[in-house]
Amino acid sequence: MKNTRIKNVTQEDVAKRAGVTRSIVSYVLNGTDRAVAPETRKKILQAIAELDYRPNQYAQALLTGKAAMAKNHIGIILHNSSAFLRPYYTEILAGIYTTAHKAGHHIRFLRFFEELENPILFNSLIHEEEISGLIIIGLDQVPQTAESRDITQRIKERIKQVVVVDCQSEDFPAVAFDRRDAGYKATRYLQKKGYRRIFFIGQKDGRLSGFKQAMFENMPEEMTESIVKSAVDIEGGYEAAASLYTELGGKMPEAIFAGSDEIAVGVIKFLHNKKIRIPGDTAIISIDNLELSGYSYPSLTSVNVHKKQMGEKAVDMIASGKAGTNQGNLAVILPTEITERESC
Prior knowledge:
Blueprint: H1 11-18, H2 22-29, H3 38-51, H4 56-63, E1 73-78, H5 87-102, E2 106-112, H6 119-125, E3 133-137, H7 146-158, E4 162-165, E5 174-177, H8 179-192, E6 198-202, H9 206-218, E7 228-230, H10 234-247, E8 255-258, H11 261-273, E9 283-288, E10 301-305, H12 307-319, E11 331-334, E12 336-339
Parallel strand pairs: 1-2, 1-3, 3-4, 4-5, 5-11, 6-7, 6-8, 8-9, 9-10
Antiparallel strand pairs: 10-12
């Protein structure tokens, strides 16, 4: 979308562009637009986006040179609200907040990507008079649509310091771990322990690629599509294990590689319900090494991901000026290592 913003855009300008009265624009801006027809509201939002309208306080800051006020302010965008329920992302956020505090930076806001579809909110938050840096967590989990790609591009145009966390990006510098390598390590660990019939339950991303690579290199005769089950959380892990149990005629494979600790907890719960011994009957390994993995029964062998450090590094990159969007797809890949416990 072409940006046609004029100096100090007012509500009158928005009203003129949308072909409505200023009072109707005000209703939409203040969230008191229940009586406004959907088509009229859509035209107003489109005008706001096209003109890059911002509430008066932001336009005034631009005119009076107050952009420097945002110098140490950082915004955070989460891929969706479910991330709040995931201890994995809580550790990343802890790293961001603690490091920002130490560096004298302030977290200006924490929002969800889908909220940026609202041009009023986007124009209020995503500009250099509000923040000097932006951290986007889990960008690869945002549905790839024309609208989401447009939002990503507009972020790139407006904010000079952006870091993507937990995945690599074609548009921004990133801090992540190598999912394929972690998947490969987990599978090889099981293979070296003597397990042959290994099933994968997890996210169909680099973790699965690493699993397939290790199986192909060392046990190609064991590879079939039936050894892969999709899951992303505890409930999904439980359901995938139940499905596997049914398909195998009331049995389980000798080893399971779960794509995350949360998925593994769901699998462990199902195995306990069926009185299947871990690791006596079925061994389990996973990725993340959350705190809970040391307290599951049995305690969970897991590939350690430096979650808090990802958040810390993202803030460091912004504070040092190394997160410039002109850096393209520069990525900092943090190492992983296996934490051995009792589950395999």
